[in-house]
Amino acid sequence: MPATATAVKTKLSRQQYLDLYYFMRLNREVEDTMTRLFRQNKIVGGLYSSLGQEAISVGSAYALEKKDWMAPMIRNIGALLVKGVPPHDIFTQHMAKYTSPTKGKDGTSHFGDLENLHIVSPISMLGDLIPVLTGVAMAGRYLGQKIVAMTWIGDGGSSTGVFHEGLNLAASQKAAFVLILENNQWAYSTPVRRQVPLENLADRAKAYGISSYIVDGNDPVAVYSTAKEAVDRARAGEGPILIEAKTFRRRGHAQHDPAEYVPAEQREYWEKRDPITLYEKFLAAERILDAKGKKEIEGKINALLEKDREFAENSPMPPPELASEGVYCTGDDCHKIRPKWERPIAEVTPPKSSVEPVWIVEGFGRGKSAYRENAPIHFGDTQPVAEEPAAKTKPVAKPATKPPARKSLPAKSAARGKARR
Amino acid sequence: MAPITFLEAIRQAMFEEMAADPSVVLIGEDVGVYGGAFKTSEGLLEKFGWERVIDTPISESAIIGAACGMSYLGLRPIAEMQFIDFIACCFNQLTNFVAKGHYLWNAPAPIVVRGPSGGGVHGGPFHSANPEMYFLHTPGMKIVYPSTPYDAKGLLKASIRDNNPVLFFEHKFLYRRIKEDIPEGDYTVPLGKAVVRREGKHLTILSYAAMMHTSLEAAEALAKEGIEAEVIDLRTLMPLDEETILQSIRKTNKCLVVHEDTKTGGISGEIAAILFEKAFHDLDGPVLRVASLDTPVPYAPTLEEAFLPNAQKIFTAAKDLAKF
After folding, report:
1. Residue A366 to residue B90: CA distance in whole angstroms
2. C-beta separation of B315 from B218 below 8 A
3. Which of A329, A338, A378 is best to mutate for the B interface (most B CBs within 10 A)?
4. Taking the model in full, what pTM does it have?
5. Catalytic residue list contains B259
6. Domain count, chain A
7. Where are the domains positioned within chain B?
8. Which of residues 139-178 of A touch B (CB under 8 A)?
9. Min Cα–Cα distance to chain A from B31, Å
């Protein structure tokens, strides 16, 4: 059986350490600002807190490149900020303002940007984003873009049917897809022990023959390093990877929920493990951040949020007539997305695309995968390794704990499968 | 050119669109080497390869989700439901995710979800459904339900080129039973345009898919009794061609709606409401409905026959209506 790997923790550059700090602080300040707005009745609907989970959103999204795609969940404000969403978009969304990305048609983190930031909007039905982001990864490979798609799921959402359908499809397609399973131990009021009879939710990966990691979700450096390794492996064609980030939801399901069902000892334990406080200690010990540097960052964040909050508060509500607009995409300019081909189109059109329709494809079931050599290959993605006799009989026991240093595939042939390892 | 079947028309539409546009891909269960449960995709894999004709696990939600995700990068996926009954398995993905995307966050999802639908072939309660109305009640979807090979090809091509999610229903009773000469080369049939299949002055029969042919059969019988029925093929339920419907009612003043979908909540109720709102003074009689029984589709031929509308039931209802 594939072992679940432990997290990796690498040394980062000074700037990377500081970026992680900045975005975690920004994440928290954005949410604190919204809590104040909520208490002033300026947030239209619910408000969902990611207090104590900032390291996960920030660390994992920070592992993505600009061209990569992601779909956040409700507690991934930090991921949105890292990907480039300005705070005023988050404020206006929650306040249902006309200036919000959805013009007030939806709230919270339910918005996206297909053209520039490559963000898919989440919906409230959990798990749906897993096949959607699998499709994004499949299209990316088809177009030759070498992108990675990432989304998040909770301990609760990992019990949905579409979690299974999506991850299984991603695995069978060897999609360049990374799933961050944010185990905050509570699905609304139901503790994880009552939902899932597993010690580690990362073990769900075994069912799909994919690799997984377990990481301390309150350690941004570990989350980032592990996510980065997973993103690199997925990009190199190893297929989807699951990362379980263990953490704790310190607030209720939403603002209305005092979460009195959470045992006091559990809360106390995690309150002491605040990811930002711990990280500040680390940065101070490493002499990366001193009091002056911290003040500068705080000043920068305060100025930004002050401006963006004011913009949001001064923005108008959408005009009523907007309610009936936009159900269908009509007119020539409503659909602007054109496929960006980064491989020759001739490869996917006849005569080059023509194949013999045989049931058993030589080498199928023997491709290089995230956890061992004989997981399914994707057609046209990776050459079969059937010729290598060593891989034939012995199951490769090596878990993904410490994947060997990987050279990235030759740029030209990565997607077309001429690479051999 | 030799006449082609309804099924061949579907295949041709996919073949031609995939040949013309590399952003068109097909995803579904057994669509590749096997060529689809009904062979609608036979030959596509040979021509376009593994990357464009994608066999999936039995996971309807994942099929729809993946197709939607692919469309976000500019592709135009066709997603096949092996039987349209199984669309219930991905109801959430379609109604909550795909259909709402453009309205909520300006994300059009140009995907076509197509599959064999309808009864009359003794498929039983899970292989005979007409689930179109679940989706008519979902703002954001277009719904196409053709009745002839010419329309099937032209409408499927138009659906693939459409920038919205389109549900394309293929009545499996028609797959190999009707043939038609169709023009060579590229053509489309626009979504949202009904067509008058038979002109008449005494009453209007509105129908679509397999029941359109049954309605025509009934109209011939009615003509022998001196009742000239105008038969209109709706072709698309969303958008619905109200103009063609209203024009005909203003002429005949009587309306009978015939569909294979079950009666309660069928499109006939919606059409009746539209007529009351917009043509009340033109109506000389009640809007009548001939539809399937409000039951699951039963298996035994005797039961299924009782369940489905037929030419006799249409004839009787039309004669009653003509008396007004």
Report:
1. 31
2. yes
3. A329
4. 0.92
5. no
6. 1
7. 4-180, 195-322
8. 139-140, 142-143, 145, 149, 161-162, 165-166, 168-169, 172-173
9. 11
Residue A18 and residue A288 in contact, taking contact as beta carbons nearer than 8 Å: yes
- The correct answer on CATH 3.40.30.10 for the domain covering B4-180 is no
Distance between CA A59 and CA B247 in Å, rounded? 62
**Angle at Cα B215 formed by Cα B214 and Cα B216, nearest 5°?**
90
Query: A73: closest CA among A114, A108, A30?
Result: A108
The answer to whether the beta carbons of residues B114 and B170 sit under 8 Å apart is yes
Q: Residue A318: its chain B contacts at CB < 8 A? A: none
Is 3.40.50.2300 the CATH number for B195-322? no
| Burial tier of A124 (Cβ tally within 10 Å: 0-12, 13-18, 19+) | exposed
Tell me which chain A residues have a C-beta less than 8 angstroms from the C-beta of B92.
Answer: 125, 128, 162
Using CA atoms, how far apart are residues B182 and B151, in angstroms rounded to an integer? 9
Q: How far apart are CA A59 and CA A234, in angstroms?
A: 17
Specify which residues A271 forms β-bridges with.
none
Give the CA distances from residue A240 to residues A209, A369, B183, in Å, rounded to whole numbers and listed in that order.
10, 9, 46
Q: Is residue A299 part of a domain?
A: yes
Range of the domain at A11: 5-324
Q: What is the pLDDT of residue A356?
A: 83
Q: Is residue A412 part of a domain?
A: no
Yes or no: say if A419 and A382 are a contact pair by the CB < 8 Å rule: yes
- Checking ipTM against 0.85, whether it exceeds it is yes
Contacts of A124 in chain B (CB under 8 A): 96
Give yes or no on whether B4-180 and B195-322 have one common fold: yes
Q: What percent of chain B clears pLDDT 70, i.e. is strictly above it?
A: 100
CB of A223 closer than 8 Å to CB of A231 = no
Residues B289-302: pLDDT tens digits?
A: 999 999 999 999 99
Query: Looking at residue A206, which CATH number applies to its domain?
Result: 3.40.50.970
* Residue A334 belongs to a domain: no
The SS3 of residue B207 is: strand
Q: Confirm or reject contact between B20 and chain A (CB < 8 A).
A: no
Residue in this structure with the two tokens 């809360």, named with its chain if needed: A267
Q: Is A284 exposed, middle or buried (0-12, 13-18, 19+ CB in 10 A)?
A: middle
Residue spans of beta strands (DSSP E) within B66-202: 76-80, 112-117, 142-144, 166-171, 179-180, 195-198
pLDDT in tens, A261-273: 999 999 999 999 9
